[in-house]
Design goal:
Layout: H1 5-21, E1 30-36, E2 43-49, E3 57-63, E4 80-83, E5 91-92, E6 111-121, E7 129-137, E8 157-158, H2 161-169, H3 175-180, H4 187-194, E9 207-211, H5 223-241
Parallel strand pairs: 1-9, 7-8
Antiparallel strand pairs: 1-2, 2-3, 4-9, 5-6, 6-7
Length: 308
Amino acid sequence: MHLNSNLTDKDLAQAKQILDGTHLWPDTPQIILVVDRSERVQRLWIAVGGGELEKLTALGSVRVSTGRPGRTEHFRTPVGVFINDGQIYGYRAQGTKNEFGVRGNGNKGMRVWDFGWQTTEDWRKKDTVAVVRLEMHATDPDLLEGRLGRSDSEGCIRIPSRFNTFLDHHGLIDRDLDHLIHDGQNARALQALLGASHDPAPLAGDRVVVIDSSQTDAQLSDPERARKIQDDFAKFLAQSQNPNPNPNPNPNPNSAPAPAPAPAPAPAPAPAPAPAPAPAPAPAPAPAPAPAPAPAQGEPAAEDTTTP
């Protein structure tokens, strides 16, 4: 699209209105990033505003990609003012590829600014909100950076790799982190994040304003509501995984333990079975009859009297 001064002035005026309406116009002049999530624009401006300045003044702009609703786990980028106040440090990309071979956060070492949980319109159901984790980061320089300038992300703000490096090196929205780096408790972690070459600009700020020039009445993000939704969801998951929790997981140490129930009496032993009677001995066989005496020589044998 052709970038003209009328669009720039209109977008910066809308951003100023949101800053004033939320009472987040800075006390002193600083760098403020303005992102237009409109599908017709998809642009980020580097502007200066705050203090006695009456408006935002653009210093330059780059193409970006914001959330593209209509696909699974894709939502519109939240609208509102998002402050990099140091409560969440962010991190650096590992440069690893996902299952599709895409380096979602860009090359290794690219900065990722994390603005926490935010609410946005849920395109799946009218008048409802969805919760998204809003981050600003680079994208795959080979596969996706050429698509910047169209809505393409899951809800984050994708920026060019060179702009990521410039923004990181000069700390354009790292002002609060640069203040915290002098706190001994946080110094080592912040020094590791910002790096040895970190050279903050004099006008470094801490704010990113997301607008929608095609929907000027878009609902602003409510981070408190987003956190409550996340907490409630976490509790729901915990209860689902443990449906019968111990009703008294932390008993009072001063209370006496309940007495153990008395054991049930052992059952009486069954009576021993009566011994089986010994079998009667078989009667002794009758003695065989004595054989008849042999007849004397010359006498006839006795007659056989048995029945045939």
